[in-house]
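Exercise 7. Predict the structure of Putative selenium-dependent hydroxylase accessory protein YqeC from Spiribacter aquaticus.
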Amino acid sequence: MISAATRKGVTMQACDKGPPPALPDALEVGDGIVCAVGAGGKKTTLNRLLEQLGGRVGVTATTALTPVPPSLVDAGCVATAEQLTDDVPAAARTARRVVFACPGAKPDRHAGVPPGVIAAVHARAGFHTTLVKADGARMRSIKAPRAHEPALVPGCRRVLFLVGASVIGRPLDASLAHRVPELAALLDLSVGQVITPEHIGRLLSEPAGACQHVGTARLIAVINQVDDTDRLDAARRAAEAALAGRCAPDRVVLTAMTAAQPVIEVIDPGQTRADGEP
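Solution. The predicted structure, encoded as C-alpha coordinates:
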Protein backbone atom coordinates (compact mmCIF):
# COMPACT_ATOMS: atom_id res chain seq x y z
CA MET A 1 0.00 0.00 0.00
CA ILE A 2 1.37 3.43 -0.93
CA SER A 3 0.13 6.39 1.03
CA ALA A 4 -1.07 9.54 -0.67
CA ALA A 5 1.59 11.88 0.65
CA THR A 6 4.20 14.36 -0.47
CA ARG A 7 7.71 14.47 1.00
CA LYS A 8 10.48 16.64 -0.45
CA GLY A 9 8.60 16.96 -3.73
CA VAL A 10 7.66 13.28 -3.92
CA THR A 11 4.00 12.48 -4.54
CA MET A 12 2.90 8.91 -3.91
CA GLN A 13 -0.57 7.80 -4.92
CA ALA A 14 -2.56 5.40 -2.77
CA CYS A 15 -3.06 1.87 -4.07
CA ASP A 16 -6.63 2.10 -2.84
CA LYS A 17 -8.88 5.06 -2.06
CA GLY A 18 -8.55 4.79 1.71
CA PRO A 19 -6.15 6.66 4.00
CA PRO A 20 -2.69 5.27 4.75
CA PRO A 21 -2.58 2.82 7.65
CA ALA A 22 -1.82 4.02 11.14
CA LEU A 23 1.69 3.20 12.30
CA PRO A 24 0.64 0.54 14.87
CA ASP A 25 -1.41 -1.25 12.20
CA ALA A 26 1.38 -1.13 9.63
CA LEU A 27 3.90 -2.49 12.14
CA GLU A 28 1.40 -4.99 13.58
CA VAL A 29 1.90 -3.51 17.03
CA GLY A 30 -1.13 -4.45 19.07
CA ASP A 31 -1.08 -6.43 22.28
CA GLY A 32 1.97 -8.14 23.73
CA ILE A 33 5.69 -7.43 23.88
CA VAL A 34 7.31 -5.71 20.89
CA CYS A 35 11.10 -5.42 20.51
CA ALA A 36 12.74 -2.80 18.28
CA VAL A 37 16.24 -3.63 17.02
CA GLY A 38 18.63 -2.62 14.26
CA ALA A 39 19.49 1.00 13.45
CA GLY A 40 18.13 4.11 11.83
CA GLY A 41 15.27 5.23 14.05
CA LYS A 42 14.43 2.83 16.90
CA LYS A 43 13.85 5.54 19.49
CA THR A 44 11.83 7.69 17.09
CA THR A 45 9.74 4.68 16.08
CA LEU A 46 8.95 3.78 19.70
CA ASN A 47 8.07 7.39 20.46
CA ARG A 48 5.74 7.57 17.45
CA LEU A 49 4.06 4.35 18.60
CA LEU A 50 3.63 5.81 22.08
CA GLU A 51 1.80 8.74 20.49
CA GLN A 52 -0.71 6.46 18.80
CA LEU A 53 -1.19 3.37 20.95
CA GLY A 54 -4.21 3.01 23.19
CA GLY A 55 -4.52 0.87 26.29
CA ARG A 56 -1.97 0.53 29.06
CA VAL A 57 1.56 0.72 27.62
CA GLY A 58 5.01 0.06 29.10
CA VAL A 59 8.22 1.24 27.48
CA THR A 60 11.70 0.06 28.43
CA ALA A 61 14.95 -1.40 27.09
CA THR A 62 17.21 -4.39 27.51
CA THR A 63 20.12 -2.06 26.65
CA ALA A 64 20.85 1.57 27.55
CA LEU A 65 17.81 3.86 27.43
CA THR A 66 17.84 7.63 27.06
CA PRO A 67 14.91 9.50 28.66
CA VAL A 68 11.59 9.34 26.83
CA PRO A 69 9.99 12.77 26.21
CA PRO A 70 7.83 13.54 29.28
CA SER A 71 4.85 14.38 27.08
CA LEU A 72 4.68 10.75 25.91
CA VAL A 73 4.54 9.03 29.30
CA ASP A 74 2.48 9.40 32.45
CA ALA A 75 4.89 7.86 34.97
CA GLY A 76 8.47 6.69 35.20
CA CYS A 77 10.23 4.12 37.36
CA VAL A 78 14.02 3.90 37.65
CA ALA A 79 15.01 1.23 40.15
CA THR A 80 16.81 -2.08 40.50
CA ALA A 81 15.39 -5.01 38.57
CA GLU A 82 13.97 -6.49 41.77
CA GLN A 83 12.24 -3.24 42.72
CA LEU A 84 10.76 -2.77 39.26
CA THR A 85 8.67 -5.92 39.61
CA ASP A 86 6.70 -4.13 42.36
CA ASP A 87 7.12 -0.46 41.44
CA VAL A 88 5.95 -0.67 37.82
CA PRO A 89 2.68 -2.54 38.53
CA ALA A 90 1.98 -0.02 41.29
CA ALA A 91 2.52 2.90 38.89
CA ALA A 92 0.40 1.22 36.20
CA ARG A 93 -2.62 1.21 38.49
CA THR A 94 -3.03 4.96 37.93
CA ALA A 95 -0.82 5.73 34.91
CA ARG A 96 -1.59 4.53 31.37
CA ARG A 97 1.92 4.89 29.89
CA VAL A 98 4.86 3.91 32.10
CA VAL A 99 8.56 4.03 31.23
CA PHE A 100 10.87 1.90 33.36
CA ALA A 101 14.60 1.20 33.51
CA CYS A 102 17.47 0.41 35.84
CA PRO A 103 19.82 3.13 37.15
CA GLY A 104 22.67 4.04 34.82
CA ALA A 105 26.05 5.63 35.29
CA LYS A 106 24.73 8.97 33.99
CA PRO A 107 21.46 10.77 34.86
CA ASP A 108 20.51 11.03 31.19
CA ARG A 109 21.26 7.41 30.33
CA HIS A 110 19.49 4.60 32.14
CA ALA A 111 20.62 0.97 32.15
CA GLY A 112 18.67 -1.83 30.52
CA VAL A 113 16.33 -4.21 32.32
CA PRO A 114 16.97 -7.97 32.17
CA PRO A 115 14.69 -9.57 29.54
CA GLY A 116 13.09 -11.98 32.03
CA VAL A 117 12.22 -9.10 34.35
CA ILE A 118 10.55 -7.22 31.50
CA ALA A 119 8.38 -10.25 30.74
CA ALA A 120 7.37 -10.51 34.40
CA VAL A 121 6.64 -6.78 34.66
CA HIS A 122 4.54 -6.88 31.48
CA ALA A 123 2.32 -9.58 32.98
CA ARG A 124 2.11 -8.16 36.51
CA ALA A 125 1.42 -4.59 35.37
CA GLY A 126 -1.33 -5.69 32.99
CA PHE A 127 0.18 -3.80 30.07
CA HIS A 128 -1.69 -4.15 26.80
CA THR A 129 1.61 -3.46 24.99
CA THR A 130 5.21 -3.27 26.16
CA LEU A 131 7.63 -1.54 23.79
CA VAL A 132 11.27 -2.57 24.18
CA LYS A 133 14.45 -1.13 22.71
CA ALA A 134 16.43 -4.35 22.48
CA ASP A 135 19.83 -3.30 21.13
CA GLY A 136 21.99 -0.26 20.47
CA ALA A 137 23.43 1.28 17.32
CA ARG A 138 25.31 4.38 18.55
CA MET A 139 23.21 6.74 16.41
CA ARG A 140 24.15 4.96 13.17
CA SER A 141 21.72 4.04 10.40
CA ILE A 142 22.69 0.41 9.81
CA LYS A 143 24.10 -2.40 11.92
CA ALA A 144 24.57 -6.14 12.04
CA PRO A 145 24.11 -8.01 15.31
CA ARG A 146 26.88 -9.75 17.13
CA ALA A 147 26.33 -13.39 18.05
CA HIS A 148 24.65 -12.52 21.38
CA GLU A 149 22.41 -9.78 19.95
CA PRO A 150 19.68 -8.72 20.16
CA ALA A 151 18.58 -9.18 23.78
CA LEU A 152 14.96 -10.07 23.06
CA VAL A 153 12.35 -10.52 25.76
CA PRO A 154 10.81 -13.97 26.35
CA GLY A 155 7.32 -14.09 24.87
CA CYS A 156 8.01 -11.26 22.40
CA ARG A 157 5.24 -11.16 19.78
CA ARG A 158 6.82 -8.83 17.21
CA VAL A 159 10.40 -7.88 16.33
CA LEU A 160 10.84 -4.63 14.41
CA PHE A 161 14.21 -4.62 12.63
CA LEU A 162 15.10 -1.12 11.40
CA VAL A 163 17.58 0.07 8.81
CA GLY A 164 17.95 3.56 7.36
CA ALA A 165 17.49 4.06 3.62
CA SER A 166 20.01 6.92 3.85
CA VAL A 167 22.87 4.38 3.73
CA ILE A 168 21.97 3.09 0.25
CA GLY A 169 24.44 4.34 -2.33
CA ARG A 170 27.01 5.30 0.30
CA PRO A 171 30.31 3.55 1.07
CA LEU A 172 30.41 1.30 4.10
CA ASP A 173 32.32 2.93 6.95
CA ALA A 174 32.03 3.59 10.67
CA SER A 175 30.38 7.00 10.18
CA LEU A 176 27.12 5.38 9.08
CA ALA A 177 27.41 1.77 10.30
CA HIS A 178 27.66 0.12 13.71
CA ARG A 179 29.44 -3.24 13.97
CA VAL A 180 31.30 -2.66 10.69
CA PRO A 181 33.27 -5.94 10.73
CA GLU A 182 30.11 -7.98 11.35
CA LEU A 183 28.22 -6.07 8.69
CA ALA A 184 31.00 -6.46 6.12
CA ALA A 185 31.16 -10.22 6.71
CA LEU A 186 27.38 -10.65 6.65
CA LEU A 187 26.87 -8.68 3.43
CA ASP A 188 30.10 -9.78 1.71
CA LEU A 189 31.18 -6.13 1.56
CA SER A 190 34.53 -4.42 1.95
CA VAL A 191 34.96 -1.22 3.91
CA GLY A 192 34.52 1.61 1.42
CA GLN A 193 32.36 -0.43 -0.95
CA VAL A 194 28.99 1.09 -1.84
CA ILE A 195 25.93 -0.32 -0.09
CA THR A 196 23.21 -1.35 -2.57
CA PRO A 197 19.50 -2.14 -2.10
CA GLU A 198 20.40 -5.80 -2.51
CA HIS A 199 22.77 -5.54 0.45
CA ILE A 200 19.91 -4.15 2.56
CA GLY A 201 17.69 -6.98 1.39
CA ARG A 202 20.33 -9.48 2.48
CA LEU A 203 20.65 -7.86 5.92
CA LEU A 204 16.88 -8.15 6.35
CA SER A 205 16.73 -11.82 5.34
CA GLU A 206 19.88 -13.55 6.57
CA PRO A 207 19.73 -15.90 9.57
CA ALA A 208 22.64 -13.99 11.12
CA GLY A 209 21.04 -10.64 10.28
CA ALA A 210 17.52 -9.46 11.05
CA CYS A 211 16.35 -13.02 11.68
CA GLN A 212 18.86 -13.73 14.45
CA HIS A 213 17.23 -15.02 17.68
CA VAL A 214 13.75 -14.01 16.46
CA GLY A 215 12.32 -17.47 17.12
CA THR A 216 8.55 -17.64 16.71
CA ALA A 217 7.99 -13.88 16.80
CA ARG A 218 6.84 -12.16 13.61
CA LEU A 219 9.66 -10.22 11.98
CA ILE A 220 8.68 -6.82 10.60
CA ALA A 221 11.45 -5.21 8.56
CA VAL A 222 11.30 -1.41 8.69
CA ILE A 223 13.19 0.58 6.08
CA ASN A 224 13.16 4.09 7.54
CA GLN A 225 14.33 7.48 6.22
CA VAL A 226 12.47 7.00 2.93
CA ASP A 227 11.90 10.68 2.23
CA ASP A 228 12.64 11.28 -1.45
CA THR A 229 12.11 9.62 -4.82
CA ASP A 230 15.53 7.98 -5.04
CA ARG A 231 15.20 6.50 -1.56
CA LEU A 232 11.69 5.24 -2.32
CA ASP A 233 12.85 3.40 -5.44
CA ALA A 234 15.88 1.99 -3.63
CA ALA A 235 13.82 0.95 -0.61
CA ARG A 236 11.38 -0.92 -2.83
CA ARG A 237 14.26 -2.82 -4.42
CA ALA A 238 15.61 -3.64 -0.96
CA ALA A 239 12.18 -4.86 0.15
CA GLU A 240 11.87 -7.12 -2.89
CA ALA A 241 15.34 -8.56 -2.22
CA ALA A 242 14.46 -9.13 1.44
CA LEU A 243 11.23 -10.96 0.64
CA ALA A 244 13.14 -13.20 -1.81
CA GLY A 245 15.83 -14.00 0.74
CA ARG A 246 16.63 -17.13 2.76
CA CYS A 247 14.89 -16.01 5.94
CA ALA A 248 12.41 -13.47 4.61
CA PRO A 249 10.68 -11.09 7.02
CA ASP A 250 6.94 -11.46 7.48
CA ARG A 251 6.37 -7.92 6.25
CA VAL A 252 8.39 -4.93 5.02
CA VAL A 253 7.27 -1.41 5.91
CA LEU A 254 8.74 1.69 4.28
CA THR A 255 8.64 4.70 6.58
CA ALA A 256 9.76 8.27 7.18
CA MET A 257 9.47 8.48 10.96
CA THR A 258 10.07 12.23 11.12
CA ALA A 259 7.15 12.98 8.76
CA ALA A 260 3.64 13.81 9.92
CA GLN A 261 2.39 10.56 8.36
CA PRO A 262 5.28 8.11 8.80
CA VAL A 263 3.93 5.12 6.85
CA ILE A 264 4.75 5.21 3.14
CA GLU A 265 4.21 1.65 1.96
CA VAL A 266 3.47 -1.78 3.42
CA ILE A 267 4.75 -4.75 1.41
CA ASP A 268 3.68 -8.29 2.30
CA PRO A 269 5.04 -11.49 0.72
CA GLY A 270 3.41 -12.23 -2.63
CA GLN A 271 1.94 -8.75 -2.89
CA THR A 272 1.65 -7.11 -6.32
CA ARG A 273 2.48 -3.44 -6.49
CA ALA A 274 0.14 -0.83 -7.95
CA ASP A 275 2.32 -0.49 -11.06
CA GLY A 276 1.80 -4.16 -11.81
CA GLU A 277 5.35 -5.24 -10.96
CA PRO A 278 5.69 -8.17 -8.52
